[in-house]
């Protein structure tokens, strides 16, 4: 399928998929683009999609960006999910180890230049893994941040050059947690300790009552996204 054909298909399906259930969107995604992958961060939205995808297409690749800086609870959530679903998440690591990064760019790069740190530990590895696929699935929701408010259920990702599916873009946080509780889904226990959005340990803090759910990410800076989503 060439680019023009993909764009035509996306424009047509974006309207149809807007009212489709997440499961219907996943089914369409894996059938239309067999060479597809799911990017999992082990956050609440993504554990929901792991469960849905396992029911729809259990052999579809699921990868995670191992920044080397995740909370231990995140790695433990990964291990528990692998055991429950009988799958192996594809580990994608940065080219530089933390020690090499510190030697080349200085210690605690996440403080001096968080964008550079995210580029090294997230964006470059993501670009590398996505180059192997024609489509990818994410767990972004429109109400997570203003930068995500216009996300469509299916769109062409111009940054990475492939088709992007956002099956739960229209869901609220309540929808996510209703699914987790109703289906007894494994989730990161940090969510129970006021961490609604979980990234690297150095750049994530607890959120106080009344704060924006993403206020705990890159707190104290004007950074709001790691660069994985436009």
Automatic annotation (TrEMBL):
Stretches for region Disordered: 210-230
First-level EC class: oxidoreductase
Record-listed E.C. numbers: 1.8.4.10
Associated pathway: Sulfur metabolism; hydrogen sulfide biosynthesis; sulfite from sulfate
Cellular compartments per GO CC: cytoplasm
Keyword Lyase: no
InterPro entries tied to this protein: APS_reductase, PAPS/APS_Rdtase, PAPS_reduct_dom, Rossmann-like_a/b/a_fold
Catalytic-site annotation from UniProt: 226 (nucleophile)
Reaction(s) catalysed by this chain's protein: [thioredoxin]-disulfide + sulfite + AMP + 2 H(+) = adenosine 5'-phosphosulfate + [thioredoxin]-dithiol
Cofactors demanded by this protein: [4Fe-4S] cluster
Domain Phosphoadenosine phosphosulphate reductase: 36-205
Cofactor: record remark: Binds 1 [4Fe-4S] cluster per subunit.
Chain positions recorded as [4Fe-4S] cluster binding sites: 117-118, 200, 203
Broad class of where this protein is predominantly found: cytoplasm
Function: Catalyzes the formation of sulfite from adenosine 5'-phosphosulfate (APS) using thioredoxin as an electron donor.
Family label: Belongs to the PAPS reductase family. CysH subfamily.
The protein's name: Adenosine 5'-phosphosulfate reductase
